[in-house]
Design brief:
Two copies of one chain form a homodimer. Chain A is an alpha+beta fold. In chain A, 58% of the residues lie in helices and 8% in strands. In chain A, strand 1, helix 1 and strand 2 form a beta-alpha-beta unit. In chain A, helix 1 packs across helix 10. Chains A, B: This is glutathione transferase.
Chain lengths: 213, 213
């Protein structure tokens, strides 16, 4: 039997959630090892041995350690490709498009979404002043990215084609914050096809389980 | 015989160079379709049909179009895995580490390296004022990232292990600018193992050919 995968990180943080959503979709057994980011445990020497940049998540299965959430979801989706939801695409060409949209998420969507969530959700909690110029600029950037998604999703049900994949899954954590935590639901809801896509992917049982962890 | 792959983009730009280095390593036949970024050709309707975000590169082989340089290099390295240099790793575990370090490049290294090159190489050419605070901050960030590389490269010859891979290749374009165009060679050369790694990967015949294109 395969060894349980340890996931280091707080279950409420975006990048660990990307990994947890993948593991639940795939039916991979895991165990969360909590890392308290507010106490700075990600800077502890023991943690830095696992992840030298001091960020979560890290996974460990036996003596195989891996970090960077998008690397982890690729590796485990491939390792367990015959079980649970197929998240990679079936043909080489489908896989290429999954990679393309996963990179679009990482390179175009992630930065403005991250800056919005940081400024509007976490800075107020930490008493750090909000950078209003950056908020405005990030919202404009993200809007333009979502305009491209709207066009794409008018032609295919999911980003990489007519199948749910890592490319869609990777958007769940920050989309969730946009809609449910920082009052930016209109960025999603004002775009008909983006809204239909979000309604679909956010109602998947695996994602609902992640939110309960 | 496989169809020639069209690569849209200027051969001097960083992201197209990532693709070209991969294609030459793999012995994949390609043809460059020049896109003049300074004339804004990436905003032409014809180009936006291929790449809706208006950035280079895009590849086309037959009717299969793909964008995002790191997605392209993954797809073509897999498609042509039996020819040229193996860039993906042999086992699932090696592939996982290639993914991890490719993500480290994209998430940790790329942003500060990009900001340095933009401010110190391209802004002066375009008459845009340099953001000195950002330059200072980016150099500090990049230095910390390269400290982790130094530690890693003291234990293995390349980032993902003892084999050259996409993870190393992906650093070639910006490392080249740091060393040869913006006076930041010391960021590489002051770190013994990073320097040895750079000397090794930058002297590969495929990379030298990219610089001649």
């Amino acid at each position: 039997m395969a060894e349980v995968v340890k996931v280091y990180g707080p279950a409420y943080a975006s990048c660990p959630r990307r990994v947890l959503a993948c593991f639940i979709e795939k039916g991979i057994e895991f165990e969360i090892v909590h890392v308290d980011l507010l106490k700075g445990e990600q800077r502890n020497p023991e943690f830095l041995k696992l992840q030298p940049f001091g960020v979560a998540p890290v996974t460990q299965q036996g003596d195989y350690t891996l970090y960077e959430s998008r690397a982890i979801i690729r590796y485990y989706s491939e390792k367990y490709k015959s079980q649970g939801t197929d998240l990679l695409g079936k043909t080489l060409e489908e896989k290429g498009l999954v990679e393309q949209w996963l990179e679009v998420e990482a390179q175009n969507y992630n930065a403005p979404a991250y800056d919005l969530v940081l400024n509007l959700l976490f800075y107020p909690k930490l008493g750090i002043p909000v950078n209003s110029d950056l908020v405005k600029e990030s919202e404009e950037k993200l809007g333009k990215v979502l305009d491209v998604y709207e066009e794409r999703l008018s032609k295919s049900k999911y980003l990489a084609g007519d199948f749910f994949s890592l490319a869609d899954l990777s958007h769940l954590p920050f989309n969730h914050y946009l809609v449910n935590a920082i009052g930016k639901a209109y960025l999603i809801e004002d775009r008909k096809h983006v809204k239909a896509w979000w309604d679909d992917i956010s109602s998947r049982p695996a994602w609902k389980k992640v939110l309960e962890l």
